Predict the structure.
Amino acid sequence: MKIRHIPLTEIASAEKFRYRREGVSPSLERSVKAVGVLQPVWGVEQEGVVLLDGFRRVEAARRGAVEEIPVRLFAPSQLEEAFLQALHLNLTGTGLSVLEQLLALNRAESTFPAQVPTVLKWLEYEHLPGVLELGRKVAALPDWLQDYFHRSNLSVRMLQKLLHFSPGDYEPWYRIGADLHFKGAELVNLLEQVRDVALRDSRSPAELWKNLGIETVLESARTPQQKVQEIKKIVAKTRFPLLHKIQQRVQEKAVGLERDFPGMLKVSWDRSLESPYLLLTLRLGENEERLQQRILQPAVVRKLKEIWEAINQLPEEAENEH
């Protein structure tokens, strides 16, 4: 191993050993442009120089028109050892996201299969079922989806749940997750609902995307959070149309009752209607006694009964409407 200053033109652009997903930061770009690359990158002599570590520094050098950079250069016979050293250094230094760990595992499996047990041990993945297959799936993902999973730092278990849904079939729905910063559990829930509706209606997820007008929501002037809520609402309404009708009816009755007690009464219920309940939240003030008297009036009790009946009539009404 030796350190040499090598022209950028001799450094191969192939990224077969890359597993970090972080891009070039503005501060790194400014630093490299001002003083060049100070910390050597790692490479192996193989038809030029093939990078093992330091991809961001090389990219920053190219952007800054730096002509040559220092390279910790390994002989071809040292490739396997150097790859492991660089990986161990990354793991014990700044660390890697779960996505990056899986990419590193895949790089080891495809190039140095004999070292897979060692890498699994370093990652503490040796007892996780299906982790090698997950690494292969992750490595085959497009860059934008890898970046989303990396930024979200999803767990192995969450990635396994998500990748039950083919990114090719569910691409527009994955893009929602990436663009609107869905959490992993949120995206899994959305994909499960989309799958159920697509199977029920014999439509592909992409067709469902078009039919539900999701693009219109994304192009609207709503805030990102409002778009998330609207998309969830549209999909849930499509999945459970009867339940949505009942919930609308209950909501209308609840709002009517709350209007009689402005700022003092809040009505809530189990919106899944799996464990029906009605919860009244009272904000008591100076007229506490008067409020108690109003709550017990026959008209108020009747409205509460109507809300309760609307919830409990769901199974019968749903069966009749179906």
